[in-house]
Amino acid sequence: MKKVNLDVLAQENAFNLIGQQWMLVAAGSKDKFNMMTASWGGIGWLWNKPVAFLFIRPERYTHEFIERENRLTLSFYDETHRAKLQFCGKNSGRTVDKVKATGLEPVALESGTVTFEQARLTLDCRRLFKTSMTEADFLDKSLLSKWYGNQPGGSLHDVYVVEIESVYAKG
Fold it and tell me: Where would you tag: which of 5, 33, 76, 99 has the fewest CB atoms within 10 A of its CB?
């Protein structure tokens, strides 16, 4: 994995990258971390910085690591790793060793964050902003029932804006 220029993101379709291919959100150090699959988020420009925004439910194990750490990674994979991403999205790191179960190989980046050898692209990010969704914030109330109403124990997401400080690509 080698550090590349941020301009490589101009070659990516963010709708496809996040919404279709999914990403792994990882936080923690190489000694203790967790990762989860996410398919809601985006990449853009805010506060004169390259940023990503992501949505994480507070009950997710990865949320604990994001709250504790100032940094996280967003990593992207080719289709051959789809089953690994599905596993990471359906299983909790509280009860399963996701690395052992999937064969993903953790790699520590210069910043101390974690990505995986199999990633084709990794964004090394620093937290800038967090807010928690509330029912009152929804202008279109149908979204509440569609996405949150039928999920027992599921809370509304926390929204994070993170600065993309470095980009790594498979060498």
Answer: 5
Place 148 in a pLDDT band, splitting at 50, 70 and 90: confident
Which residue spans within 47-145 are E strands per DSSP?
Answer: 49-56, 71-76, 106-108, 114-116, 121-132
Whether 26 and 88 have beta carbons less than 8 Å apart is answered as no
25 beta partners: 36, 74
48: left (phi over 0), alpha (psi -120 to 50) or beta: left
Would you say the pTM of this structure is higher than 0.90?
yes
For residues 108 and 29, the answer to whether their CB atoms sit within 8 Å is: yes
Helices (H), 91-168: 98-102, 142-147
Reported residue count of the chain is 171
